[in-house]
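queue> pop job 88
queue> type: inverse folding (structure -> sequence)
queue> payload:
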């Protein structure tokens, strides 16, 4: 009998993307699955539209924005309570190849030591260009990096392999791992909770595996570089937090020197590079909150 998979789709005022995602999930080539929409306090008519158009989808309302981790945790806890063997997190701004879930579960079941499995993810608008083919942690630069980012897929990343981390955009986790490791750390609020979770899974003795035959298409633009103040703030703060929580002793010591270097770099930008002042202030705010231990929503 197939393992029971609960698919968690988190929504926050993203009706059109969410409806397209749910429509795509209807063609999943796997029988024993259930889709759960977790609505993070949307103020549009997302919930009503989902209930009207997708009556087979279970809807859980948080009534407020709990962030990426907090909202997904509500879905994870619901799925475990309902008897899920696996929980699959997927971004609402994605669509899927019909075999995506079958391929993930097949890899997950191939080895008892595999704790989490992730898909190969393409740009939705360029379905042969890679967005994610596994992740690696660059401790020197204190950041997570996508393997294969922006490359045309010529089969160079078609091997199942263990990776540094998996993105929460498309992440399958075994029940026993959740019971042992717990859920996402919701105090990150946004960004790095997936890298943190992957490292915690590894530290618990499980493998984190990239499964290239599982294909997802993500609505992210190559031409739009992330640069909002909130994006910069969360990456600056949470990258340091992740390193302090999961890095080696050397890394935990080095991050304070890195933070000092980044502090001086931002001061130079503020004094001599007016166009980069907003970026610099966001980095400084992130570093300040890291040192103060201030987590959660900015």
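queue> result:
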């Amino acid at each position: 009998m197939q393992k029971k998979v609960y698919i968690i789709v988190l929504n926050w005022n993203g009706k059109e993307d969410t409806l397209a995602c749910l429509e795509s999930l209807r063609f999943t080539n796997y029988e024993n699955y259930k889709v759960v929409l977790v609505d993070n306090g949307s103020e549009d008519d997302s919930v009503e539209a989902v209930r009207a158009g997708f009556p087979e989808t279970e809807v859980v309302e948080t009534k407020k924005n709990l962030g990426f981790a907090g909202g997904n945790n509500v879905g994870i806890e619901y799925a475990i309570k309902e008897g899920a063997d696996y929980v699959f997190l997927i971004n609402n701004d994605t669509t899927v190849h019909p075999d995506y879930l079958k391929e993930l579960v097949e890899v997950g079941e191939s080895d008892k030591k595999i704790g989490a499995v992730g898909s190969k993810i393409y740009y939705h608008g360029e379905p042969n260009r890679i967005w994610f083919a596994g992740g690696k942690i660059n401790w020197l630069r204190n950041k997570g990096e996508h393997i294969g980012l922006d490359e045309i897929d010529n089969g160079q990343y078609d091997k199942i392999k263990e990776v540094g981390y998996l993105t929460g955009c498309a992440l399958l986790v075994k029940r026993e791992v959740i019971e042992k490791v717990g859920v996402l750390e919701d105090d990150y609020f946004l960004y790095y909770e997936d890298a943190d979770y992957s490292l915690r899974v590894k530290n618990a003795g499980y493998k984190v595996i990239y499964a290239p035959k599982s294909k997802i298409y993500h609505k992210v633009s190559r031409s739009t570089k992330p640069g909002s103040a909130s994006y910069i703030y969360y990456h600056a703060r949470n990258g340091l937090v992740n390193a302090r929580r999961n890095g080696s002793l050397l890394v935990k010591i080095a991050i304070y020197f890195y933070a000092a270097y980044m502090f001086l770099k931002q001061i130079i930008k503020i004094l001599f590079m007016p166009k980069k002042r907003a970026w610099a202030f966001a980095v400084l705010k992130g570093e300040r909150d890291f040192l103060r231990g201030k987590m959660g929503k900015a």
